[in-house]
Structures are given as C-alpha cells and as structure tokens.
C-alpha cells in the first residue's frame, strides 16, 4: 500500500552518491515511504526489465505497480515526486513563494545534516576547483570529520545557498548549522 522508491545507482557515478544523500534526507521526512537502492550493474536482469540505461534512475511503485519514473540527478524533482506520490494526490502546487519556502527549509536541513558540513564543487575524493581541494586538505590534515554536498549536482541548492548564507562563493563550511565561511576564513 505504501510508496516504494527504488534508486538504480552505480558506485562509480558521483551523482548517484549525491542522490543517495538526498534519498536519506527524504527517508527521514517520509517515514511511511520505503526507499531502496539497487546497484544497476549488479542486477542486470532487473535493470533490463525496467529499461534502466543510465544512473541514477528512480522508479516509484505503489501496490506493486510502477507508477512513475525519474531519470537523472534531479533532487528537486525527486522530492516533488516523493511528496506527490506519498500524499496520493495530484501534482504539488508550487507558486514562487511556496517554492522559495521549500528551498529554504531544504537548505536548513542540509546545513544541519552533519555536525560539520562542507558545500563544495565536486566531492572530497574529486574536488572540481582548487579552493574546494584546499578546504578538503585543511579539514583532513586536522582530522576533522565532515560531510559534503556537491553544489554542481543541484543548481537550486547552488544558487539558493548563496542567498541563504549571504556568501557568494564556494566552498562554504557550516559547523552545527552555522556558516563559518569560505577557504580564507577557515585558513
């Protein structure tokens, strides 16, 4: 009876790791929804049955029937589809003010997702700019445990966080939900 969301992913695709974080946040918000991760290449017969040709791909099931699909790393669209199907209603209305409130709430959750949260370009293993690389090196050198979010994977977060924090550049480091700053401040 409840909604089941299946994420077909691959360990070599960084956008899949990012979407796994989005799914974890959605799972905390929607306890009635079951979220499953399937490594697409490990279950080729299942991937073939459902026409999975790229990762990440999300399939939505209700009453054992496939009811929707999302191809690609589109966090806002995934969130909207989960909300719509979990409620069992039609499309969620999203006037500009409502969308802005949703983004603000989402950003608040993201900055508080870990005690030390780094918003960066790329991932700690593969930074995509020199400033992000230096920030990861500093945190690692000092033994700081941190989580990260690749702002290239979600344009809404990338642009929204600039206004949310009143900080125009990345990386941005948050500790206990409070903005510390960028690379120069951390240095």
TrEMBL record:
Main location: cytoplasm
MF annotations from Gene Ontology: iron-sulfur cluster binding; metal ion binding
Annotated InterPro entries: Glutaredoxin, GRX_PICOT-like, Monothiol_GRX-rel, Thioredoxin-like_sf, Thioredoxin_domain
Keyword Transmembrane helix among UniProt keywords: no
Domain Thioredoxin positions: 1-87
A GO-annotated cellular component: cytosol
Any single GO BP term: intracellular iron ion homeostasis
Alphabetical list of CDD domains matching this protein: GRX_PICOT_like (cd03028), TRX_PICOT (cd02984)
PROSITE patterns: GLUTAREDOXIN_2, THIOREDOXIN_2
UniProt KW keywords: Cytoplasm, Iron, Iron-sulfur, Metal-binding, Repeat
Localization per Swiss-Prot or TrEMBL: Cytoplasm, Cytosol
Protein name (database record): GLRX3 protein
Origin species: Leucopsar rothschildi (Bali myna)
Biological classification of the source: Eukaryota, Metazoa, Chordata, Craniata, Vertebrata
Gene (UniProt): Glrx3
């Amino acid at each position: 009876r409840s909604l089941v969301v299946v994420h077909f992913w691959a360990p070599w695709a960084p956008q899949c790791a990012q979407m796994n974080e989005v799914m974890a946040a959605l799972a905390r918000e929607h306890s009635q929804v079951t979220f499953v991760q399937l490594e697409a290449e490990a279950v080729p017969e299942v991937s073939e049955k459902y026409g999975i040709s790229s990762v990440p791909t999300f399939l939505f099931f209700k009453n054992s029937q496939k009811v929707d699909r999302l191809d690609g790393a589109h966090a806002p669209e995934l969130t909207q589809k989960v909300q719509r199907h979990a409620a069992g209603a039609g499309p969620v209305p999203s006037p500009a003010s409502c969308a802005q409130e949703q983004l603000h709430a989402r950003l608040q959750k993201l900055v508080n997702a870990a005690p030390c949260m780094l918003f960066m370009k790329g991932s700690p293993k593969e930074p995509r700019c020199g400033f992000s690389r230096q920030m990861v090196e500093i945190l690692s050198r000092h033994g700081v445990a941190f989580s990260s979010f690749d702002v290239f994977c979600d344009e809404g977060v990338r642009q929204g966080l600039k206004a949310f924090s009143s900080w125009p550049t990345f990386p941005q480091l948050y500790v206990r939900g409070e903005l510390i700053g960028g690379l120069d401040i951390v240095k």
